[in-house]
Amino acid sequence: MENKNFQVVGQITPRKDGVARVTGQEKYTVDTTLPRMLYGRTVCSPYAHARIKSVDTSAAEAMGAVVLTFKDIPPIRYNERIITVEWALHKDHYILADKVRRMGEPVVAVAAETEELAEKAARAVKVEYEPLPVLIDPREAMKPGAAPLYDTVMYGDKEIKIENNIACTREVIEGDVDKAFAESDVFVEGTFKTHKIYHAQMEPKSVLCRPEPDGGITVWATTQSIHNTRIVLGQIFDIPLSKINVKRMAVGGTFGSSIQMNSVVPIGVALALKARRPVRLTLTREEDMHDHGRFGTDAHIKIGAKKDGTLTGVEMEMIADLGAHIIQGYSFLGVSIGWVVSLYRLPNVRYKGVGVYTNKAPGCAMQGYGNPQATLAVESLLDELAEKLGMDPLELRLKNYVGLGMTFWGQGPMVRSIVWSDGVPELLGKGQELIGWDKRESPDTKSGRFRRGIGLGRGFHTTSAGAPQPGDVIDFSGALVKVNQDGSVDVVTAMVDHGGGTWEAIAKLVAETLCVPLDKVNVVPSDTFSTVYDVCTHATRGTYAGGGAAVKVAEQVKKEIFETAAHYMNVQPDALKLRMDHEQGQAVIYVPSIPDRKMTLKQLASRTWSESWKTIAAVDSYRPTNCPPAYVTIFLEIEVDTWTGTVRTLRTALGVDCGTVVNPDGAIGQLEGGLSRGLGMALYEDNEWNDQGQLLSKGYWVDAKTPGIMETPALQDLNTHFADTYEPTGPLGAKGIGEAALNPVPAAYANAIYNAIGIRFYELPITPEKILGALMEQENMVKEGVH
Amino acid sequence: MKPQMITLHINGRTHYVALNPNQTLLVALRDLGYTDVKCGCEKGDCGACAVFLNGVAVNSCLVLAGQADEGEILTAAGLGTSEHPHPLQTAFSDAGAIQCGYCTPGMIVSAKALLDHKPHPTDTEIRDAISGNLCRCTGYAQIIQAVQSAAEKMDAGGEG
Ligand code: FES
Ligand code: FES
Which of A82, A426, A448, A507 is the most buried (most CB within 10 A)? Predict the structure, then answer.
């Protein structure tokens, strides 16, 4: 099973899409145009919560604009993300607002000949609002008597009442927490808060839609899932899916922001259908910031342990700030406890999660889907526990982590599987050595203006949401692989690559399986017409599930190659082997025991073309029966300036266990990118709303504090490393990296800051203001002798 | 508002266009098909729209097209082709400095502006030069490395 003598996999190769990207030839949705295309704009609410009293579009129409109002749209509520089965899906979103629930909510949409005219027409629309009380804090929103955002929403096909702005709740009970706590010697607990920060993907969300003569539509959209986009559009517009084609595009980063069918997509489609012309609609950066953000969380966690450091159980209560719409909030509540109990063995669990509506940007998945929030809490508490027990934090982690052979249910209570590969001891050992863990000193030994600290964050992400049994989450992929007449290979997949190199990985896995040189294997442009279903590029599943599908199908192609070649070569198919011949630039089919009995794939394919009239090809679906953890360990050395409160990152050791490393430079890029985004989340990124629900950054990236180049440590100080593992359920031993790379980063910062100044922070971001405030308090306590 | 005729020399080609005086250079370039000039924010925050105007790197979203009348404009696509990429383009592609690639054209323009004046930049000088360009994907380390390695290659080969 385990074969690590790869020829393509694990090699550093120039990215296939590199040339297009560095020479500016890559086309993203925002770059796509069509003849006779109109430009769309939306009329966005200036209020965060308001009833729409009247809409007057006459002036816009007089300018020649096509105008879309609530009256023109299908009266259907949808959920823009459909990765769960119907019974776990709440639907509260109309294409245009029936009532305003967040700032910037589209109320009317227009399309016109030029962008300028569209803008003018949008400004000419008169909307009368009746402002309603604004709810920013989920705790306020839950209070009886708070202004309701919704009276009812759809749940499956039933209409349900919403009380106290609580959209959903989820409880999980395993074992007996009371008994476990009664038998525990020591406890750690805390309330951890994280904010609704902005994805800050570089490409603004966009859609281009062309109505087709047969009543169908062709859609170019920023999305991580072309098939789910098509399905939701079919449901809203009642068009057969066979007439909806969604094109797979290059995407300018997402980090979760396009995990769903974005809200601009149906608006663009409705405009195009009304105008009977192609329409492109792109969000401005400010509109994009209003559109989605991370789920904010407020979680109280208590963990019990025995004197020897064995963890006994966990009690957790969490409030998730859903924002104005629910986008798989129920799943979010499930995974949030899943992350906790899959980090460490906590056999007794009592959990309650509540998802609450507020007048802010809807929360959607953002790198980690609740995992960085959960990991911050657990890793902070583990450090506290280690201190209480007088144990090395590393030892405490090794003793309790969920590893080889254990049950793992990161993606929620219904997605459980077994861990088959585990590089955690290796990662911790290597990181320990690289960062100089053993020389780490306790905070009370540090003084002076600049204080250094070393911190560890350990975490993981599930690769895919696969499991042996069905659950509430839909997870499968598919691929079509075909051999061309010259021995080259086309891979047709719906899987989107948001920049991480998923297509590169898929091409390498197929090249390796079929022994075809990499430059002859291409992941070709595709759309929903030409591909079988793939759920989404999310859950760190691109390489594992998308690549898994491609390898499964490539194996079928290989079988057909052998059967067809056996016929031409007059041998048994089982006697045949494949090898890569770089001189000929071909895969060669040969019989090891008869040296002259061989043919290239090109010879085979051209014979099947001219003599047997067939294409060697296969297509299939693939459901991962596992969701193996991609483990990451982040060691940091930081320096706190106690005069300014700023934190500088000095050195890191970033380690990942991603099984077989398919794209080494891409994998390193994932770790470095994860560090940058995690650093932003930990230390300063904040997308704050005032009490009127107005976004304080006003659409300025700099004010939302997206990390720039100055905060990045020098390359030689980053120290990335891989564990040497092989995942038996993965394609050629591979797992994923993506989200795992970020998940433990905020925790590592919190722990490193504690190690530097002896102060623990429970709320992100840990800004200079908070650090200075806490230092002052610490000083006062020392002065007063409180200690 | 009345459109005015302006002349733009872009990557060696001359365009005569009628544009409203409030049109930005970014929109003018993209409307002419130079979509390698990316739009990230239209507020001067991200650097995705960087181009050379008369030899100086500017954020094209902060320049009115009228200000560029008769100007020489060079975009990332004008620096090299698939067959003959600029050393910076090769380095970005080889060093893992691109992920989604949306920030890349602007990054390459900023990096070239630096190397035009400082063929041997230090780490700090590279960071300064690129501090106006945001990249959400890579974490910047491999971008710094790409600029360094392009500088070395250009030095050895006298290219650029
Ligand atoms: S688009 Fe010009 S700086 Fe962002
Ligand atoms: S590579 Fe995606 S923003 Fe830089």
Answer: A507
